Amino acid sequence: MATHTGRLTAEATARTSVSVHQLNRSFGDHQVLNGLDLTIHADEFVAILGRSGSGKSTLLRAIAGLDHDVTGSGAIDTPDSVSVVFQDARLLPWARVLDNVILGLGGPDTTTRGIEALAEVGLAGRERAWPTELSGGEQQRVALARSLVRAPELLLADEPFGALDALTRIRMHDLLRTLCVRHRPAVLLVTHDVDEAIDLADRVVVLDQGRLAADITVRLGADRDHADPEFGRLRAELLGHLGVRIEHAA
Ligand SMILES: Nc1ncnc2c1ncn2[C@@H]1O[C@H](COP(=O)(O)OP(=O)(O)OP(=O)(O)O)[C@@H](O)[C@H]1O
């Protein structure tokens, strides 16, 4: 059975946020992750691309410790505080927005921290709204605030913007970028969207049948222009790893 091998030492945490070693996961006879190794450094933003069924969510769930329905082996080290954001915001419909953000948090200043987190994601004044009164993008903002208020060292995000329209998605990219600069968690983002991966990540890994098919550092500045030739080169390289060929016009 796979194990979470305990916590990283303080010295190692300074450099490494997540360490996955020789990870195997199977659903019955179907082996989904095959001897996978991955290290994510503290403050690093890593995006995972891969075709449908390549094992992206299985990897994220394993790192989150949410994979009780699979068998496997290998070692995973994570920091103490980990937050997970999914494609659906998973808000409690019977709790107001602020209560969703601070639910389960202890401490005397919990309400203030919750209000501040909502302001950070652009939802000041919506504390007493019900989740059903918010748009999909606003609900994802609440989910981000719920993660942020816990000050995670590691943020795991499984297609968090997958259900949003294109414009809201771009706004959420800006927001996530800003929050990452301010709070500096390590991030592991699962996405189907190559441009989203290049827009946000320091490094993009590609999964293929549960193995790492590519591990590419994004050498672009903070303002990422889709028209930049390097952006286009990376896009073509990543699409190539995903089995998509781009024909360039002569
Ligand atoms: N609970 C489960 N029971 C059985 N098989 C599962 C289960 N969850 C996932 N699988 C299988 O494991 C494989 C990998 O699934 P996973 O969700 O990790 O892929 P993915 O890369 O995230 O795919 P997608 O991009 O479509 O979300 C798939 O073949 C899937 O059918």
Automatic annotation (TrEMBL):
GO molecular function, one term: ATP binding
Domain ABC transporter: 18-234
Pfam families recorded: ABC_tran
Keyword Flavoprotein recorded: no
Alphabetized InterPro entries for the sequence: AAA+_ATPase, ABC_transporter-like_ATP-bd, ABC_transporter-like_CS, ABC_transporter_ATP-bind, P-loop_NTPase
Transmembrane segments: none
PROSITE patterns, sorted: ABC_TRANSPORTER_1, ABC_TRANSPORTER_2
Keywords per UniProt: ATP-binding, Cell membrane, Membrane, Nucleotide-binding, Translocase, Transport
Taxonomic superkingdom: Bacteria
Protein name: Sulfonate transport system ATP-binding protein
